């Protein structure tokens, strides 16, 4: 197994650089705008633009990869992100920055899709669980390192933008120099919204709420931390501790999730989140207490998404799990787009503590909505293995994540995500045949 993971080291390194740059950029923009007195609404709107770009990029990325191939699509995405990051230094207009955040989101989703399809192509079925878990660990590590930069260099300056640009430039190197053969192009997975809304409403509710909370956290937590008096170096630590706690919680939550009813675990996590969020909203604690509370927050909030994914897979047949992945992506993305906007409005009108009032309200929805009694089990798939897949919970994956999941048969992925390619090739062949026949017909 270690040898198999070593074969993906170049892809993992590219992922690490991407997430380091992305995490650094998000926090830098939030802190810079707050320091310049820009309204919290604009800060939230910028994060909304980023997540909206990620969701839109899922469709754009599929078509770009199909048109020009994986390496060229990855290069295009990295080039667009690098140019967009540097444009932040050239323009101080917040509206321009909003457009740049949308572009960054779309380009990064394309890069995620290239990396994930590559991992899927080069890994054996029995390796995919470890491959996917390692991919998520690298994702977390990149996000954490992006926050650590502020502890090393707390003064906000254009140097941070240069670091981000360097990360996205350097992530090209391992992908461009890889000896691996790039995989076949894939097309967008179909959506079966009505089926999933009827089949897994509790799981979709959890995914949507997780999106609301994670979008609000990444977008507005640096602003909250600054408003309660933390210096820039400790704001980076505040963010890093939360993410590290989320990583540490993945495997214990997975162990429990495979032995205890998943809906019950989601409800208990939501109860703890509600209590912790209320305490943080009050805000009457020293910096050490705040760091401790955000660690508990991270333990709980980062496990909502993967537990909901596991709950959803328990009630969906294997043939529908690729469309399910696309549905979960859209649901999480919509929540992550709305979360920063709503929380920033509340913070502007009622104060910074409203960020965690918003978090408490979101988690309270799950306390009442996701209950064991509400999960009928009518559509429980008996053949579904009890398997919990760690996830970053920040949309750092695409619909192709389903292809890496060992619960999904490789043939199902190929049938559902390459049919369009086959149809187009068949149509092209038929067109060519008709043309040949026309050439040989008597005039």
From TrEMBL:
Pfam families: MFS_1 (PF07690). InterPro entries: MFS (IPR011701), MFS_dom (IPR020846), MFS_trans_sf (IPR036259), MFS_YcaD-like (IPR047200). Residues 424-443 are annotated as: Disordered. One of its GO terms (cellular component) is plasma membrane. GO terms for molecular function: transmembrane transporter activity. Residues 7-375 form the Major facilitator superfamily (MFS) profile domain. Keywords: Membrane, Transmembrane, Transmembrane helix. The chain crosses the membrane at residues 12-35, 41-61, 73-91, 97-119, 131-150, 162-182, 203-223, 235-253, 265-284, 290-312, 324-343, 349-368. Gene3D superfamilies: MFS general substrate transporter like domains. PANTHER family: MFS TRANSPORTER, TRANSPORTER MFS SUPERFAMILY. This is Predicted arabinose efflux permease, MFS family. It comes from Halopseudomonas aestusnigri.
């Amino acid at each position: 197994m270690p040898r198999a993971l070593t074969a993906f080291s170049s892809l993992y390194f590219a992922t690490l650089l991407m997430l380091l740059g992305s995490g650094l950029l998000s926090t830098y923009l939030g802190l810079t705008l707050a320091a310049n007195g820009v309204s919290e609404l604009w800060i939230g709107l910028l994060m909304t633009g980023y997540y909206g770009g990620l969701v839109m990029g899922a469709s754009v990325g599929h078509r770009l990869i199909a048109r020009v191939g994986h390496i060229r699509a990855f290069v295009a995405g990295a080039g667009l992100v690098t140019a967009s990051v540097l444009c932040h230094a050239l323009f101080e207009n917040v509206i321009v920055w909003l457009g740049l955040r949308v572009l960054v989101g779309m380009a990064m989703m394309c890069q995620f899709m290239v990396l994930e399809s590559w991992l899927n192509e080069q890994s054996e079925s029995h390796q995919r669980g470890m491959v996917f878990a390692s991919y998520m660990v690298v994702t977390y590590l990149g996000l954490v390192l992006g926050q650590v930069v502020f502890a090393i260099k707390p003064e906000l300056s254009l140097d941070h933008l240069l670091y981000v640009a360097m990360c996205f430039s350097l992530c090209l190197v391992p992908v461009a120099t890889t000896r691996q053969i790039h995989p076949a192009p894939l097309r967008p997975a179909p959506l079966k919204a009505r089926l999933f809304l009827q089949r897994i409403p509790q799981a979709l509710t959890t995914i949507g709420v997780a999106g609301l909370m994670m979008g609000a956290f990444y977008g507005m937590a640096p602003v909250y931390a600054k408003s309660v008096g933390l210096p820039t170096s400790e704001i980076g630590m505040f963010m890093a501790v939360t993410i590290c706690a989320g990583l540490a919680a993945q495997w214990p939550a997975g162990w429990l999730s495979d032995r205890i009813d998943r809906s019950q675990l989601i409800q208990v996590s939501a109860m703890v989140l509600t209590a912790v969020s209320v305490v943080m909203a009050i805000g009457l604690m020293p910096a050490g207490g705040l760091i401790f509370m955000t660690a508990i927050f991270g333990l709980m909030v980062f496990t909502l998404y993967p537990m909901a994914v596991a709950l959803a897979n328990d009630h969906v047949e294997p043939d529908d799990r690729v469309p399910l992945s696309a549905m979960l992506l859209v649901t999480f993305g919509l929540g992550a787009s709305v979360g920063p906007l709503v929380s920033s409005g509340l913070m502007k009108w009622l104060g910074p503590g409203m960020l965690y009032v918003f978090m408490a309200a979101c988690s309270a929805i799950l306390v009442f909505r996701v209950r064991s009694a509400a999960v009928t089990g009518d559509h429980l798939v008996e053949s579904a293995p009890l398997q919990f897949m760690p996830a970053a919970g920040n949309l750092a994956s695409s619909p192709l994540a389903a292809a890496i999941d060992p619960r999904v048969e490789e043939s199902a992925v190929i049938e559902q995500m390459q049919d369009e390619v086959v149809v187009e090739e068949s149509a092209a062949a038929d067109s060519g045949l008709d043309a040949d026949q026309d050439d040989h017909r008597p005039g």
